[in-house]
Amino acid sequence: MTTHATARKQPPEPEAGTAVICVRGLTNSFGHQVVHKDLDLDVRRGEILGVVGGSGTGKSVLMRSIIGLQQPDAGEISVFGEQTRDRGESETKDVRRRWGVLFQNGALFSTLTVAENVQVPIHEYYPAIDQRLLDEIASYKIVATGLPAESSSKYPSELSGGMRKRAGLARALALDPELLFLDEPTAGLDPIGAAAFDDLIRALKDLLGLTVFLITHDLDTLYAICDRVAVLADKKVVAVGTIPELLALDHPWIQEYFNGPRGRAAETSAEREAARKPAPASADDGGDNRGMTD
Amino acid sequence: MSPHPADFSEQDRTLRLTGQWTLAQLGTVPNRLEALDSSPERVDLSDVQRIDTVGAWLVHRLQRDHGAALEGGDEKARELIEKVGGVDKPFQSQPDQPPSFQRVLAQVGAATISAGRTLLGLLEFFGATMVAVWEVILAPRRFRGNAVIRQIEVVGIDALGIIGLMSFLIGIVIAQQGAVQLRQFGAEVFTVNLIGRLTMRELGVLMTAIMVAGRSGSAFAAQIGSMRLAEEVDAMRTIGLSPMQALVLPRVIATLIAMPLLTFYAMLVALVGGGLLCWLQLGIPPVTFVARIREVVPMTDLWGGLLKAPVFGMIIAMAGCFQGMQVEGNAEEVGLRTTAAVVQSIFLVIVLDAFFAIFYTAIGWI
Questions:
Q1: Are A138 and B28 an interchain contact pair (Cβ–Cβ within 8 Å)?
Q2: Which residues from B are below 8 Å from A157, CB to CB?
Q3: What is the three-class DSSP state of A8?
Q4: Does some domain include residue A10?
Q5: Which domain CATH number covers A70?
Q6: Residue closest to A212 by CA, chosen among A178, A245, A240
Q7: Based on the structure, what is the number of domains in chain A?
Q8: What's the CA gap between A172 and A162, in Å, rounded?
Q9: CB spacing of A207 vs B22 below 8 angstroms
Q10: Other Cβ atoms closer than 10 A to B179
Q11: Taking phi first (over 0 means left), then psi (-120 to 50 degrees means alpha), and beta for anything else, what does residue B154 get?
Q12: How far, in Å, CA of A110 to CA of A247, rounded?
């Protein structure tokens, strides 16, 4: 396919491996407290990039800077090759509709039902779509994220934490985004729910060709679904790579993180899982998870 | 092959889909698909450039509604259509609703029940507050003096500016309106009686109560309501702290103390405002004004007004805290409960004020 004059409306199909998000020299500070200093990061098309770091290292701030909720002090951020820094919301609308964001607690609109929550972004960007199709789209998205169909008409306060996360994911996927931001998607979920959520993200990524920016503390998630892991420490990204690559590095925090008791346990369980399932990445063999992965 | 928007053509009961079948590129295609005259037997995907889940859903709908068979298309597209079809479930975006006449009846009934419950709840809350008072009397160490002082500052001292300004203006307004009306009878001098008795008996305490309800009653409801949402109140209970003692009692006591003080202050400032207008407009010098006030306003007016203040204060604080403790579910509820707190406390204050008026007349404080 070629790019041409109408490229704004019809984005070219870039090849796998090129950078979707490109952050250069990012500096963020709150008062005297510097969170990021000269931070560089690339997220490649079609990968699941896990972002880890201790509490307070600015993982969420990094995500908020990329999606434009936090104005950085300095640095350049481009998403899909477009600068997003210091540009108004209306200017970046075309980029915005190509990404979906799942906030830590779902951030569902509390006065709308789950179905209406999913319909909000679609209605905002494509008001011409009639209500019947809107309802159907909301329906399959909700069921695809593993929620029972009856939960469509429920309000967020009637859902459990895990269901709220799934509903938030359904809303993040409403516009069929190419890029998905997930802020601690498995935090607060039980291990079975967390594993099912991991499988769901992996399956959606394989099926829809998503690029995923995933903030997590969950070592199992890192081993199970992340293609690469970026480590935030000392106000910047100290290392990016696959877990074996990171393990070969001699950074005290990385060593402690992956070689601590929890890191070891996660590694063992990932190995066991790999032995049980010959192709863990495939969408077709998700054992007890629901939705798209059935 | 350059990318172009989604489209389709029909030939020999075969729909040939072309272009990008993505949400952004669909345009009017969904409506045109709905308006198809004949039902297609085959859907040809070979010229589809890109497809996302919405496009896949439209294709799935063709399969489902017309029993059309798929032709062409790459494996990814077929897999996507199959997966999307796999999550086709009966759907409802709103909770079930009964017919409208039933709804009206149900709403009237529900409103009646909730009004009754609120009244009972308030009584219960009053009882719980009294129990908390008793517990604190039995174990005085549990009394939170610092919290009470802090609340007195917020409810009382921080309100001095706005209540002073409001009372000053009220004094001016009464004096001005009174002077205009009484001039018709040549009885301008009675303006002083009007200002003195009205502010002491009614307006001083009533306006203060309304202002405190709006400032502090609402704040109590919102604070405690947010704490309920954040499970702070539950956390207190599990630790063994009584929310009644830790949250409600300091606020009630503080309002109880602050209200009479604020009321007295409001009365004085209103007199100053009225006196100023009398001086400027009617030529009554301040000395004469004060002397006249002492002459025409009986002390019972002052006691009557000040006696109401702690009662009103208690009602305001209790309504605010009660509504705050009722918050459940979502952020919208905090707003609703805050409104309810203000409306209820002002309503109850005015109802009680009427009772006080009858009571004072009965005991001869006229």
A1: no
A2: 329-330
A3: helix
A4: no
A5: 3.40.50.300
A6: A178
A7: 2
A8: 15
A9: no
A10: 22
A11: alpha
A12: 43
The domain boundary residue, chosen from A123, A143, A176: A176
Q: Which chain B residue's Cα is nearest to A143?
A: B87
Instruction: Kindly report, residue by residue over B120-177, the tens digit of the pLDDT.
Output: 999 999 999 999 999 999 988 888 889 999 999 999 999 999 999 999 999 999 999 9
Amino acid at B48: V
Chain A to chain B Cβ contacts (< 8 Å): 103
Q: Which two tokens stand for residue B46?
A: 């070979």
Strands A19-30 vs B7-11: parallel, antiparallel or unpaired? unpaired
Distance from CA of A198 to the nearest CA of B (A): 18
Domain that includes residue A25, residue range: 20-83+91-98+177-283
Coil, strand or helix: which one is A102? strand
Domain B7-86 belongs to what topology? Answer: Transcription Regulator spoIIAA (3.30.750)
CB contact under 8 A, B329 and A157: yes
**What pLDDT digit, counting tens, does each position of B71-102 carry?**
888 888 888 888 888 888 777 777 778 888 89
Q: How many helices (H) and strands (E) does chain A have?
A: 10, 10
CB–CB of B31 and A126 under 8 A? no
Helix (H) or strand (E) holding A60: helix A59-66
**Which residues of chain B make contact with A283, given a CB cutoff of 8 A?**
83
Collapse the DSSP code of B297 into the 3-class scheme (helix H, G, I; strand E, B; otherwise coil) and give the result: coil
Cβ–Cβ of A149/B93 closer than 8 Å? Answer: no
Nearest-neighbour CA in chain A from B291: distance (Å):
60
